[in-house]
Amino acid sequence: MKRPDKLLRLGVIGTLVVALCCFTPALVVLLGAVGLAALTGYLDLVLLPALAGFITLTLYALRRRPQSARRPPPE
């Protein structure tokens, strides 16, 4: 990526969206409204690994961020 802030932004936004769906009934209500309430039993199988992945991505971007600031820009 050209700007390391994009990776950090993706990680933070993804973490917030998945955390919102994990810890509130927003996704359950949405699935019930469109007639897919039977899928609510499988949400934990998808959302918890996605949350772990986005948190890992955020930590990776934070760790990588200071290293890119020390490097001179490529010409």
From TrEMBL:
Spans traversing the lipid bilayer: 12-39, 45-62
Keyword Magnesium tagged: no
Matches recorded under InterPro entries: Mercury_ion_transport_MerF
GO annotations of cellular component type: membrane
A Pfam family reported for this protein in Swiss-Prot or TrEMBL: Transport_MerF
NCBIfam families: trans_MerF
Natural source organism: Halomonas nitroreducens
Protein's UniProt name: Mercury resistance system transport protein MerF
